[in-house]
Amino acid sequence: MNLSTADPLPPGLYIVATPIGNLGDLSPRAAAVLAGVALIAAEDTRVTAKLLAHIGAGVPMTPYHDHNADAVRPGLVARATSHAVALVSDAGTPLISDPGFKLVRDCRAAGVNVVTVPGACAAIAALTLAGLPTDRFLFMGFLPAKAGARDTAIDEVANVRATLVFYESGPRTAVTLAALAARLGDRPAAVAREITKKFEEAVDGTLVSLAARYGTTPPRGEVVIVVGGPVVTPATAADLDAVLAAAMSRAPLSTAVAEVSAALGLPRSTVYARGLELRDAPNAENLAARQALQAGTSCWPQGEP
Ligand code: SAM
């Protein structure tokens, strides 16, 4: 769809990305859509009012945020059946660690046309700065603030073979980096802050070195932490047993097998077969099997990969 201000916008919900700092990053299409809709649902109407002033648009706004979303959502869905309604957040792409997913879900369920106007997203921007692999990444958003829940969330992804992306605030950055280092090991990492703003900075290092740096001087402003995936070395039978036993102690067999085969790069069938052996063998037998494995007997059908 090619929209200009001259085109009347068809009814629907328009998900409009806005800049994460530099107003020059507002796309011409985003500006045209914001100027052309009947109503803008905004996370904070005061923030969006500044953006509208920047593009010279005067469009009615209504707040849509975590505290009123359930109450106002049905009205927005109804409005979007007959009018063009935009959803924006304070900065970046709506729905990405910001409100909007339930509004999109309900619009789709009601047969409302949903249109996206993509643009800035801090997670993607940070990945382009970090110098870490981008072929597989896992967006983690904000970690829980409480230590127990935070550590559980980190443990859940410890074996995922992907670059990890976390949102964080400046003051909490050092604590989060230290928790990541404690649970993931001293992996390569980068801290990107104030992206597209005057003091944009991307500092690379390791989790331990970055935790030390920002423990002394907390970074100012908004921060994205990017962490390299686990170092993958060829798995041995002993590795498989150790990792699989740990995974099976906290998750059902099928989940543990999926996690471990991804982490060690081994065929699921191989991991599953070993999982059944570990699960079903009596303790003594299990021990003997482990000792045999540690003595060098391979559990892989055609030898170790
Ligand atoms: N929806 C937004 C997006 O698309 O990136 C994210 C909103 S989330 C509530 C805010 C978090 O995004 C911040 O705490 C920070 O982690 C990250 N962020 C947003 N703008 C940023 C910037 N200019 N530089 C670094 N991080 C930023």
Features of this protein?
305 residues, Cobalt-precorrin-4 Transmethylase, domain 1, Methyltransferase, Cobalt-precorrin-4 Transmethylase, Domain 2, 3 domains, binds S-adenosylmethionine
Total of domains = 3
Count of distinct strands = 10
- Any idea what the CATH architecture of the largest domain is? 3-Layer(aba) Sandwich
Rounded to the nearest angstrom, the radius of gyration is 24 Å
CATH topology grouping of the largest domain = Cobalt-precorrin-4 Transmethylase, domain 1
Q: What's the overall geometry?
A: globular
Proportion of residues in helical segments? 40-55%
Q: Whole-Å distance between the termini?
A: 49 Å
Please count the helical segments: 12
* Fraction in beta strands: 15-25%
Could you spell the SSE succession in H and E letters? EHEHEHEHEHEHEHEEHEHHHH
Largest sheet: 5 strands, parallel
Mean pLDDT level: 90
Derived structural class: alpha/beta
Describe this structure in words.
By secondary structure, the protein is α/β, with parallel strands linked by helices. It folds into three domains: 12-120, Tetrapyrrole methylase, N-terminal domain (Cobalt-precorrin-4 Transmethylase, domain 1), CATH 3.40.1010.10; 123-227, Methyltransferase, Cobalt-precorrin-4 Transmethylase, Domain 2, CATH 3.30.950.10; 237-295. It has twelve helices and ten strands. It has helices spanning 28-36, 45-55, 69-82, 101-109, 122-130, 147-156, 173-184, 207-216, 237-250, 253-264, 268-280, 283-294, and strands at residues 12-16, 39-42, 61-63, 84-88, 114-117, 137-142, 163-169, 188-193, 201-206, 222-227. Strands 3-2-4-1-5 form a five-stranded parallel sheet. β2, α2 (45-55) and β3 (61-63) form a beta-alpha-beta unit. The longest helix has 14 residues, at 69-82. The N and C termini lie far apart (49 Å). The site of S-adenosylmethionine (SAM) has 24 residues, from α5, β7, β8 and β10.
